[in-house]
Specification:
single chain; mainly alpha; Vanadium-containing Chloroperoxidase, domain 2; 7 helices; globular
Length: about 190
């Protein structure tokens, strides 16, 4: 047995990384068109927090006790999400695509921090969408497409790899489910 031969696992990981890099390059290429870059840049900025803070404030101010409870659940879960993604980012230290592949991937929006994994924007978009829709199902028509666009924007703008977005979504989904188990809507 050759101890220096790459294992099937390492070959599989390398293949996934090549596919992911190619996907990043392809999607980032869309942002060379000014209208697409402007649209996804604006969507990404919404994911910085302004839309979520506004949603929590509107729910608390307009939906009575259920709105205040939903906003409190979202705020507490959001803080937990920040702690988790910051811990992961600074422990795992994955450089952003535009840093790792500057010749092929352009930074099309300024990042909020240095590292890529996981996507905090996607984590929070998925988490707030699931909680918001669980408490107020009518919000699905707006929040689900917004969460998808925020997740897409992060790759298109050269700020994240698809796996960053996928893992951010899984963490966000998990946190939302835990929050909904702890404080179910309508109680």
């Amino acid at each position: 047995m050759d101890l220096h031969a790459p294992s099937s696992i390492s070959r599989g990981i390398a293949r996934i990384q090549r596919v992911e890099q190619d996907l990043c390059i392809h999607l980032n290429g869309w942002a060379r068109f000014a209208p697409i870059r402007a649209f996804f840049g604006a969507v990404s900025r919404l994911g910085d927090g302004v839309v979520w803070y506004s949603l929590m404030a509107l729910m608390a101010l307009t939906q009575g006790e259920p709105g205040m409870r939903a906003a409190a659940v979202m705020a507490a879960t959001g803080l937990t999400g920040v702690a988790i993604y910051k811990l992961l980012k600074y422990r795992l230290i994955r450089e952003r695509p535009f840093i790792s592949f500057p010749e092929a991937i352009s930074m099309r929006a300024a990042p909020l921090d240095r590292y890529s994994f996981p996507s905090g924007h996607t984590l929070h978009a998925v988490m707030f969408t699931i909680i918001g829709v669980a408490w107020f199902p009518a919000l699905a028509a707006v929040l689900v497409p917004l969460a998808i666009l925020i997740a897409m924007s992060r790759v298109i703008l050269g700020l994240h790899y698809p796996t960053d977005v996928l893992v951010g979504a899984v963490i966000g989904w998990s946190l939302a489910e835990i929050a909904l188990l702890a404080v179910p809507p309508g109680l």
